[in-house]
Model the fold of this input.
Amino acid sequence: MGITSATRHKPSGATEQPTATTAQPHLPQGTGRQRAATQGTDAQRERILQAAAQLFAAQGYANTTMAQIVRALGVTKPFVYYYFRDKQEIFETLSWRPAVDCFTALDFAAGDPRRASEKVLEGIERLIRATIAHHPVAFFAYREPQVYRPEYIAAQKKLAHHFYDLLCPLLEEARRDGDLDFGETKITALAACSLPGFLYSWYRPGGRLSPDEVVAELTMLASRVIGLCAKD
Done:
């Protein structure tokens, strides 16, 4: 698919995250004619992606055509096909970025000395913040899951497994520390992290709450799901 990297959102004051390349499977390359990325070609790819994102968000995948993307850009079809194989590759490229940001939210630096409960809460906050930061692209997978190729779905599942393989042991460690109180680990993890998934049905930028306030509210709710214990 031609996705080689994604920039993670780093909250203010957060510990620097490693690249976590083992958590980021490389999706199959597309058949666009571009062979080597440069600063100039990256800018053109971004231009195409941004135009396509607006169309996909406004009218859905099926109702968006390559001709419409070309017309929105004011370019020729060969220009777009130089960078992307087809509209599915564009859609998957857009979707991959929030997937990486969300599912590497627990990739803290090796040797991070903080308590497990602190890491859990920050990881969930990063997950929620990344979902909102990537609006509306982060919601494509919820709105139109039928679009993706099996290869893409497999790669996304690998990322998700990486995230939960980190989260579940941290939850159990925090429970042993007396910081969290919950029952079944996997159900608790899935329930807490499902909260940002529901954003696609109701979140709209420019609402009564700012993005930061929405993040804070959802993080507080997630802390209740995982049974954060009040400290005296």
User: Anything to note?
Assistant: The CA atoms of residues 42 and 207 lie 33 Å apart. Confidence is low (pLDDT under 50) at residues 1-24.
